[in-house]
Amino acid sequence: MPARAITRRRALVILASTLAFPVMRAAAAEQTFEWRGTALGADARLLLRAESRQRAGEAIAACVAEIERLEQIFSLYRSSSELSGLNRDGKLASPSQDMVRLLHLSREMNRITGGLFDPTVQPLWELYADWYAGDPAREAPPGEVVAEARTRVGISKVRLETAGGIACDPGTRLTLNGIAQGYITDRVAELLRLRGWRHVLIDLGEVRALDGRPDGGAWQVGIREGGLTLPLSDAALATSSGDGLRLGHSGRITHIFNPLTGHSPSLWRSVTAGHASAAVADALSTAALAAAPDHLARIVGAQDGVRIWATRPDNTVAHYDS
User: Fold this and answer.
1) How many distinct structural domains can be found in the chain?
2) Which helix (H) or strand (E) holds 106?
3) Domain harbouring 56, CATH code
4) What is the pTM of this model?
5) What gap in Å lies between CA 251 and CA 184, rounded to an integer?
6) pLDDT tens per residue, range 276-318
């Protein structure tokens, strides 16, 4: 498959959290129901307990409909999505509230991470994907070529206008793959919570738990790099890794880019972030891959309830806790 056809989100899911679901003892009337499907082109999974197949089916159908609705807003590869329209036309006259809300959150995460989270890195992805598409063995693009692409990168080049529209500078394009999967996960969690569901585990590339397990314990989430197993209750975990997709024969260029340099970071093999919000955890894990240890400590200290596990190339792990 050509590199361009693989989204960064899909590549991350290859190395995303693996889940170990324990055998649960619950009321005899309850059964465990599991749904498997796709979200933004990646494997998705939902685990819940209900007293009837009908109730579980109704909840799952509502979740699938919500995922589909949000994909039609945030998908990078659906030509009819809001994001595709914004990238194609440079503006959206009447964006959805979800798009506006996610762009506001993206601005906040850009501020918190000192510019390391930036959804306008799409021109860098396009540069490198096109550069290696014809000849994976060629040298990396020259500095001036990377510098030119970086002139189209920067969250300030996306404007939320007073009339309610969104406009981008010429040549600026967005990918929301580093935050949208978390946002969709949060929306599904909120939908289920409003319907009275508890003890639910949602895996749409990022993992979020409503409460803990029915037996009172925490869910256990395994992280492949570093051999970590982390407890999760009423919170979210997100993992990012450059290993999901590498461009060119050298392996030095990945699907993740530091928007401040235009190059792929290599300090950490993977980063897992924990937060009450899957969208926040998603953005933090993406940005943290490009953060030096002192910068990573500042990012974690910038808000409450953040935990980060950063795996070095030798598989040792640095842990940061706010």
Assistant:
1) 1
2) helix 97-112
3) 3.10.520.10
4) 0.90
5) 31
6) 999 999 999 999 999 999 999 999 999 999 999 999 999 899 9
